[in-house]
Amino acid sequence: MIGAEISGELKKGYTVFNKARDHHWFSDEPKELEGLDFGPRPSELLLSSLISCKLITLKMYANRKNWNIDGVKILLTIIDKEEKIIIKKKILFNDQLSEKQKKRLTDISGRCPIAKLLSNSIEFKLS
Prior knowledge:
The chain is of the alpha+beta class.
């Protein structure tokens, strides 16, 4: 399924230096929460990985069907409802797609590996 290993190191304040393979980036909290705002919040990074996975999955599917999905955008919002977290999804399609294609792509977007990972229970183990 998903093979990934990320490391993170706490720096000044709430700033975290993240590294994966040859890539590195910062995550942080905004200044109003006493962060330094050097990077996105962890929840924003989570949504970013989910959006990226959904769009890549859509592109792979569209390529097999020879559908043009250029310019397709996904907007995600986390809503905290007492004991349940809800992620609202809105997909903005280009004008070249039919309603049937849009419906199929919406369904396919829910099948990306990150969406599957998040929708199933996750077990954390110390190594």
